Amino acid sequence: MASGFPEMTEKMQMLYMDIIASLGTLPPEKKVYIFGDDDNVDMEWGVAVANYITLEFIKYSYDYSDPVYPLRHFLGDADDSERMLQSRTVQYVLKYKRKELENNSNLAPDHKFANIDMDTIEQKLKGYRFTEMNYFEHQNIHDLEVIKAIVEKRICSAKKVPNPRFEDMFEQYDNMVEGLIARSNNSDHDMVFASLALFTIEWKFSIETLYHIACLMEENGLKEVDQHALALLVGNVWIESQFGGSVKTESRMVKERRYILDYIFDEEIDPYSKNTMMDLIKKILVIGVHYKEICKTNEGEPYKEWFRKESTEEDWASFFRYYNLFDIWQKKEWTRKKIQNMRLLLDLVIRPKE
Fold first, then answer.
1. Which of 113, 277, 308, 332 could form a disulfide with 61 if both were Cys (CB 3.0 to 4.6 A apart)?
2. 26 or 170: which carries more pLDDT confidence?
3. pLDDT tens for residues 289-300?
4. pLDDT confidence of 285, banded at 50, 70, 90?
5. Helices (H), 206-312
6. Residue 4 has pLDDT above 80, yes or no
7. DSSP class per residue in 11-50
8. Backbone angles phi, psi at 29, to 5 degrees
9. Closest by Cα among 182, 198, 82, 191 to 140
10. Is 295 helix (H, G, I), strand (E, B) or coil?
11. What pLDDT score was predicted for residue 301?
12. pLDDT, position 121
């Protein structure tokens, strides 16, 4: 099969091209701003949106297929004090899992995460259950100081974390990412797990995005950033939809952000170009939300369910070899100014509302 995506399996190429083709079936008035008209199609943005949607479908499919285990499966010979500590950390993980579920109203009733609360005796006796990815998220909050400090809002401009400790925290985080990159080379399963692990961390904590902006601020002498633009990239937002009404969503375009930041946070870019880019981001996010509702197979099945049934872990791994999410990571090199900028950005992202 001739293709411009040689890293992908033949099945993944077919699924991916079908997603690109299906984007072309959107009503012209809904897509023209992003893709252009039939005589002037912007394939670069079309591919970017297809990548975004494909990653969402792989995440959904992986969540469906990842086996669940009781917490004790992962704890092994841990003593009672360690078990109690880890049980408390569970609450942090569930906080973010609930947030994820709130933004996925189309979750199937039989999905393993359709109900994660302990409302019945049966559920309490069964105990909390984790997939490998859930437990990895749990361990990030339990073991990674920078994640813990973000969750507990200790790393902002109040300087509860001194600069030397600040740098140590991010070095620990960088070492973890380097471990994921090394793991990704072991097998298809490890490629998928490591890619989705970094995706999940960046989607929830935006460390790479914020570091990149902190660097831009230092390079351009910026003392502040547009909080609305920042929220559009890393926060939860309500967006007026070109399909009618409005949608609540969050940006999980963790790789595409890197191509967008310079347009929004570079002072040399004129206001019209900045506003145009922000408008474009909104429309892409809305298409990502509505795609799942509007685009169906010829048999009337939602594309994300069709994708889940038709694809395999081998296919997902081949997509990640093409897409390479690890491109978003860069080894952190701190200066006093970058630390100050990072604290400011974390202030804007995680500080409690007044």
1. 308
2. 170
3. 877 667 777 888
4. confident
5. 207-220, 227-234, 257-265, 271-294, 303-310
6. no
7. HHHHHHHHHHHHHTTS-HHHHHHHH--TTS--HHHHHHHH
8. -70, -15
9. 198
10. coil
11. 86
12. 42
Q: In terms of Cα–Cα distance, which of 320, 340, 330, 326 is closest to 51?
A: 320
Token pair for 155: 């790393």
Q: How many residues does the chain have?
A: 354
Nearest to residue 201, comparing CAs of 186, 179, 225, 185? 179
Tokens for 128, please give them. Answer: 């909390």
Give 44-94 as a 3 state SS string. HHHHHHHHHHHHHHHHHHHHHHCCCEECHHHHCCCCHHHHHHHHHHHHHHH
Q: For residue range 204-216, what is the model confidence (pLDDT) as tens digits?
A: 899 999 999 999 9
Measured at the CA of 137, the angle between CA 115 and CA 116, to 5 degrees, comes to: 10
Place of tokens 């949607």: 53
Return the higher-pLDDT residue of 101 and 15. 15
CA-to-CA distance for 96 and 92, rounded, in angstroms? 7
248 and 238 in contact (C-beta within 8 Å)? yes
pTM, full prediction: 0.82
The CA-to-CA distance between both ends of the chain, in Å, stands at 57
Of the two residues 272 and 58, the one the predictor is more confident about is: 58
For tokens 């872990």, what's the residue? Answer: 313
> Which residues 6+ apart lie within 8 Å of 73 measured at CB?
130
**Helix orientation angle between 10-23 and 43-65, rounded to the nearest 10 degrees:** 120
Residue 248: enclosing H or E segment and its boundaries?
strand 246-250
Residue where the block lists tokens 């975004």: 52
Tell me what pLDDT residue 309 has. Answer: 92
**Looking at the predicted structure, is the pLDDT value of residue 187 above 50?**
yes
